[in-house]
Amino acid sequence: MIPARSYYMLVSSLPQLPTRFDAGRLPISWPALRDRLRMLEPRDSEVTRQVGLYFLWDRQPLDRTDDEVIDRYQELMRHTTNHLVRHLVRSRTEMRLIISCVRCRAAGAEPPKWIDRIADRAGTLGHMRKHWLDPNFNLGVHHRWVEAFRKQLDAGDMREAQRVVFNERWSDWSRIAERQTFSFEAIIAYLVRWEIIDRWTSQNAKAGKVRFNKLIEETLGEYANPIQ
Predict the structure, then answer these.
(1) Are 106 and 115 in contact (CB under 8 A)?
(2) What pLDDT digit, counting tens, does each position of 98-132 carry?
(3) Is the pLDDT of residue 193 over 90?
(4) Do residues 143 and 98 lie in contact, with contact meaning Cβ atoms separated by under 8 Å?
(5) At what angle do helices 184-202 and 83-106 cross, to 10 degrees?
(6) Neighbours of 8 (CB within 10 A)
(7) Where are the alpha helices (DSSP H) in the chain?
(8) Where are the domains of the chain?
(9) Model's pTM, two decimal places?
(10) Whose CA, among 37, 57, 131, 217, lies 20 to 30 Å from 29?
(11) Cβ atoms of 102 and 149 closer than 8 Å
């Protein structure tokens, strides 16, 4: 852990993010943010590198199978100890698999066999299998975003469907950020929200993809694997 005053200096140096992920441009560029992160000590810097690696993997095209997603999820959870990074991996993987189920349902398919491979904390995926015939899988208040996503998917509006997903992620991490002050966890929450804004503003844009690949290469060096 770095000294408390260093956390204070680092967090204080970060410009405030907008209240919404779609409210405008990023208030700080990646080069400037990367310079701020040099204030971290090696152990904490390694955690932020792991977050960057996860962002890179999560941005890859959706052409991998659900089984591959589950394999990667289980590998990451075996090797990740930071509780917020684990939450990041768990929540995004669950959301990705829920979206896969929504698309399967829309196509008239049966529940995928991989559902029983993964035991999520809230039992969401198993619950969806039991309520497969319900339009929203009887998920109720815990996953309100599913109904909104399904409606946009049915309407063929993929940008608005994506907005629903990003809004759910943003709300989750905004709540987390509110509970943090001048801690390393506050920095992680900032990075995750920064990435959500960057992802939204650069989606469907070739320039955005090139810019993100350059960001990853500069950050991760030999570990980088640019998006194709």
Answers:
(1) no
(2) 998 999 988 899 988 888 777 555 578 888 888 99
(3) yes
(4) yes
(5) 30
(6) 13
(7) 4-13, 30-37, 42-58, 66-79, 83-106, 124-130, 145-154, 158-178, 184-202, 206-220
(8) 4-11+21-133+141-220
(9) 0.82
(10) 57
(11) yes
Residue 202 carries which side chain, given as an amino acid letter?
A: S
Separation CA 111–CA 132 (nearest Å): 7
> In angstroms, rounded to a whole number, what is the distance separating the alpha carbons of residues 132 and 120?
17
Residue 121, number of CB atoms within 10 A of its CB: 8
d(CA 151, CA 164): 10
178 pLDDT tier (thresholds 50, 70, 90): very high
- Give buried/exposed letters for 185-201 (b at 16+ CB in 10 A, else e): bbbbbbbbbbbbbbbbe
The predicted-structure confidence for 120-169, as pLDDT tens digits, reads as follows 555 788 888 889 999 899 987 889 999 999 999 999 999 999 999 999 99
